[in-house]
Amino acid sequence: MPVRHQDSLPAEEVRAGKRTTRQVLIGPEEGPNFALRRFIMEPGGGMPLHTNTVEHEQYVLRGSATVRIGGETHHVKAGDVVFIPAGVPHDYTADDGAEPFEFLCVVPNREDVISLVDEPAC
Amino acid sequence: MPVRHQDSLPAEEVRAGKRTTRQVLIGPEEGPNFALRRFIMEPGGGMPLHTNTVEHEQYVLRGSATVRIGGETHHVKAGDVVFIPAGVPHDYTADDGAEPFEFLCVVPNREDVISLVDEPAC
């Protein structure tokens, strides 16, 4: 089916995340080069510091969050565009509030190794 | 810059289109494998029937339109996901109304030859 609504697609919990779900909107069995996914992070949820072996091209649909990318801290909101190069540590913390933080994330169809980054506990 | 707002990026008119603009949100000089673009079609605007040599992975942000893909007609709206394989004829007609039809379109970083398709005038 060339057209479908996002609400008709299954969402799975992201195990390494906190109150975070992921939907594959267009997966590798359909798109030959890259996959389009949608993430929803409930207020206060997010993903800990990690790296991926593939780059991310992202578009924020709704809500806002603090995103750290390679040691820099950004506050992102709807309409923001985010590029995370392969191998760069990053994390997400959805803002507290009524609205979830929702974004699209495009990745190439290549094996993605995800590595959590230890942070000094002080 | 890893983060930028869409409103800070230039928009160019799409010559083959009607009341249609395109923004490159993440281009080939930054993303190594694919480009993220945003199209805005004013009510009644759109693109005539054409083919591309690259596939499109699309996400509808706002508004609604009639989209023909490979001989099938679809009515698409915000939250819809659209996959257009390489080489398949397609067109867009944004619905009349107050709201523009706005969507993201991801394409691989490869030369894209765009060919307009003649339609029988009868």
What is the compact description of this entry?
The structure is a homodimer of 122-residue chains. The first copy, chain A, is mostly beta strands and 122 residues long.
What would you note in describing this structure?
2 copies of one chain form a homodimer. Chain A is mainly beta. Chain A has one domain (10-114): Jelly Rolls. In chain A, 0% of the residues lie in helices and 58% in strands. Chain A has strands at residues 3-5, 12-13, 18-26, 34-51, 56-62, 64-69, 72-77, 80-84, 90-94, 101-108, 115-116. In chain A, strands 2, 3, 4, 5, 6, 7, 8, 9, 10 and 11 form a 10-stranded antiparallel sheet that branches. In chain A, a hairpin with a 4-residue loop joins β2 and β3. The radius of gyration of chain A is 14 Å and the shape is globular. The relative contact order of chain A is 0.26.
Overview features:
globular; 0% helix; homodimer; Jelly Rolls; mainly beta
Under CATH, the topology of chain A can be stated as: Jelly Rolls
The general outline of chain A is globular
Structural class of chain A: mainly beta
Within CATH, the superfamily of chain A carries the name: Jelly Rolls
- Which second-level CATH architecture of chain A applies? Sandwich
Spatial gap, N to C terminus of chain A: 52 Å
Unreliable residue stretches of chain A: none
Rg of chain A, Cα atoms, Å: 14 Å
The largest β sheet of chain A comes out as: 10 strands, antiparallel
Q: Helical segment tally of chain A?
A: 0
Strand content of chain A: over 45%
Counted beta strands of chain A: 11
Largest interface, C-beta closer than 8 angstroms, per-chain residues: A-B, 34 and 35 residues
List the secondary-structure elements of chain A in sequence, H or E.
EEEEEEEEEEE
Helix content of chain A: under 10%
Compute the average pLDDT of chain A. Answer: 96
| CATH class descriptor name of chain A | Mainly Beta
Number of domains of chain A: 1
